[in-house]
Amino acid sequence: MSLILLIEDNHDIAAMVGEHLEHEGYEVDYAGDGVTGLHLAVTQDFDVIILDLMLPGMDGLDVCKKLRGEAGKSTPLLMLTARDTLEDKVAGLDAGADDYLVKPFDLEELDARVRAMLRRAGGEVAAEVFRVADLEVNTGTMEVHRQGEELKLTPIGLKLLVALMKASPKVLSKATLEKTVWGDIVPDSDALRSHLYNLRKAVDQPFDQPLLHNIPGMGYRLHRKDGG
Q1: What is the pLDDT of residues 29-60, one digit of tens each?
Q2: What is the domain range of residue 195?
Q3: Are 178 and 186 spatial neighbours (Cβ–Cβ below 8 Å)?
Q4: Which sign does the torsion angle of CA 44, 50, 55, 56 carry?
């Protein structure tokens, strides 16, 4: 049985979502504020975290940043938000969320997104080692190294990187990458762009030679331009 952590301060929403998830066969733990939610997320192992953006004590963005950064947790995370602007969505993804859902939402869509996150985290990627230039990914241990330095990626960042490394030096289209990550339930185009931006920061920013390239009008590819 999959264990889900629901961090939501609105008692009516929390009760509705919690009861629905339990009815669908999940085990649900609950926190009503950001500090408690972060503590549970760090000290226990959950299969999925559903995190509200607006929380007392510590907001969802800070919870997410601390979970990904200081705690180094890669638990799949779905952010709930009443804010539907592009800036708010990108901010949530930049903080480390894997997906987002705008309130009000249908419980059927919540189900679909939770199932998709569980599938992505459930070992769909075979245990292999991929190398492009000085970048190496081990999908068995979920470790990424470049020049001997370990890089921290979100589950979606890892999924994107493995797809790009498998295809290297070929170009993968935006549609192909979206389907690889989200299947048939694709968020708007800004989700992919934000995840790729974060992936580029992790893979390229600290190093002299860029590997992740945007090919205008075609897509993205991972390779070293000098062929090394």
Answers
A1: 999 999 999 999 999 999 999 999 999 999 99
A2: 129-222
A3: yes
A4: negative
